[in-house]
Specification:
The protein has nine helices and five strands, in the order ααααβαβαβαβαβα. Helix 1 packs antiparallel against helix 2, helix 1 runs parallel beside helix 3 and helix 3 runs antiparallel to helix 4. It binds CO-5-methoxybenzimidazolylcobamide. CO-5-methoxybenzimidazolylcobamide binds next to helix 5, strand 3, strand 4 and helix 9.
Length: 212
Amino acid sequence: MSNLQLISESVQKGRAKETVSYVSEAIKEGTSASDILNNGLLDGMSKLGIKFKNNEVYVPDVLVAARALTKGLEELKPLMISEDIKPIGKVVLGTVKGDLHDIGKNLVKMMLIGNGFEVIDLGVDVSAESFVNAVKKNEPDIVALSALLTTTMSQQGEIVKALTANGLREKVKVMVGGAPVTQAFCDEIGADAYAADAATSAEIAKIFAIHK
Ligand code: B1M
């Protein structure tokens, strides 16, 4: 098995130490950062994303894989900087105001990072005003909103309105998700996309990135 395959496998198995050591070996062998990133680390996460979508693996598997991916990225970072690899897009992500649930949001974050996006994570209980300020400051391609409560999902609509009121709506795509959120709700509040799960959120983000 090649080093890149070993990296991909170790990410899928959530073995952080192995991932770091295979990344380090690949660097020593002279493999480029983009090869290690795309055909090793991100390949592993994207394969795991498919398994997650098909219910072949579960939340804890994705979380340990995400940790292995993060450790591998840390090891690769100096080489990435020296090769000047750019992310394929920028996402501002957060759980809406009044809502403290962040497990789903964190999975979305990992899938996005695993698919080559830079993610600015605003955390939980994030107001519409904070989203607007983050969009002004970071100029993302996508704003991704998570809501887990029927009482907080309406905040996603408030954020769409606040972006419009601040003249920012045309500059970003708005993606919504979370257990009570539906495609019909997404249409009702004028968001651009609804993602039922973390893997789908990364697929949609990639489509937005290609068409920007
Ligand atoms: Co809460 N909670 N909770 N909770 N909690 C739910 C959501 C609930 C359905 C439980 C129930 O009653 N059966 C219920 C909501 C009912 C409703 O509104 N209809 C509920 C409630 C009522 C509450 C409190 C009000 C309880 C109380 O205090 N009385 C309270 C509210 C606190 C607040 O937020 N203000 C509360 C608190 C908590 C804990 C703090 C204890 C904890 C959260 C810990 C944390 O997140 N750090 C918690 C938990 C763990 C849950 C359950 C059990 C699990 C949620 C979870 O993490 N699921 C949940 C019941 C359930 O869902 N079975 C429940 C796993 C996660 C991977 O799934 O987040 O759905 P999920 O994410 C999915 C998709 O939705 C999607 O991708 C993920 C999968 O790939 N997705 C996105 C999510 N965000 C996305 C964004 C996207 C795209 C996709 O892009 C933009």
